[in-house]
Amino acid sequence: MQAVRWNATRWKPLFFTVWTGQMFSLLGSRLVQFALVWWLTQTTESGTVLAAATMAALLPQIVLGPFVGALIDRWNRRWVMIIADSLIALSIVGLALLFASGRIAIWHVYVIMLIRSVGGTFHWGAMQASTTLMVPAKHYSRVAGLNQALQGAASIVAPAMGALLITLLPMQWVLSIDVLTAAVAVLPLLFIAIPQPEGAAVASGQPRPSVWEGVREGFRFFLGWRGMLYLMGIAAALNLLFAPASSLLPLLVLTRFGGEAYHFAALQMALGLGVIAGGVLLGIWGGFRRRIVTSLVGIVGLGCAGLLLGLTPGTVFPLAVAAALLIGLMQPIANGPLLAVMQATVPPEMQGRVFSLLGSASAAMMPIGLWIAGPLSDRFGAHVWYIAGGIAAIVLGVGALFVRPIVTLEQHATSLQSDSSHGMSSQGGESEIGLSSTSIQPEDVAD
Questions:
Q1: What CATH number labels 16-427?
Q2: Which DSSP string do the residues of 196-223 spell out, in sequence order?
Q3: What global pTM score does this model have?
Q4: For residue range 26-81, what is the model confidence (pLDDT) as tens digits?
Q5: Which one of 8, 25, 64, 419 counts the least CB within 10 Å of its CB?
């Protein structure tokens, strides 16, 4: 099948056709995620089970991330997204058949989450790395804001739909929605070509480096950005304490607030509304002159909101909704500016590796936190993790304001970009991209 060639002068209709398909896929995935998490919560009422399910979804990102990025930079990114979406859809078909036959077990859900995570790791890296080639640089921040709004909208619509559908339909029919939305996402990719980066070595006539050499090159770029390394340490510490709190939200609803599915949906919708409001606020305000300061303010705000949610009495559910709204509000302020810095400064042929490494490194501490959080939340309650994570975020966010490599992150990013351009033009872009004499995180992106 011959796909439509990419036309940079007509990027909007092409990009937003692909983007709309991804929007439907995200909505279907969020809906199914809500249904499965609530099914696990009602079936087991166990924090350990929820923690194990989250770890199943995290491990592929952590273990495969560095290699996935190197492969994405070598392979056709359009076909990476097509195959990844198709794999995710097929896994859901298998799970739906198990529910329909009445043979479903907890470990089946773990396996499907693992498979979906493998597909999602490839898909996320390919989409993020392709966006910078599909969208003009001056629109990066707008597209990032649009993506934040999409995440927020999905967080509002999907829980509401999920809470309604699981009361009206058997689980297998709820799961089938994800298959339909995945098909909607794949269809535009069959007809629209995604622009590919031309690696520096290939452009200069040199042989393409091996996958392992590509991974090493990504690590060198990563390690030479000292401010980002420090920031990654902060992200790892936050993920150790804060990520388990997020995973245990349905258990918090069930055990502390005595809630039903619609209570869980209300908190999820509040989070989504907050994300949209935060994206709009950031778009109007623009943030501080130094984008990293804006992100650190967002981290402190996340800590305050998490602390409030953890301290909310079980009889005051509206206050919990307000805290969830504030958590959502702070997410775009914490994440949006950093993503814009990365997209604007990392060379396109490196972005698959850097973004995948970013995702792996930021998530690496989450399994440790989940292993601790699951059993202890069963003993002491899920709310303690919101308190611990909130305090950690406040301390780390404020402390980072006094760490010079973090505060000057953007200035160093500019020098990396300049060095990268010089290195590629004079050296053919071998392993010197962005590092030359300097010795050189990923993110939260919370989908």
A1: 1.20.1250.20
A2: ----HHHHTTPPPPPHHHHHHHHHHHHH
A3: 0.64
A4: 888 888 888 888 888 888 878 778 878 877 877 777 777 667 777 887 788 888 88
A5: 8
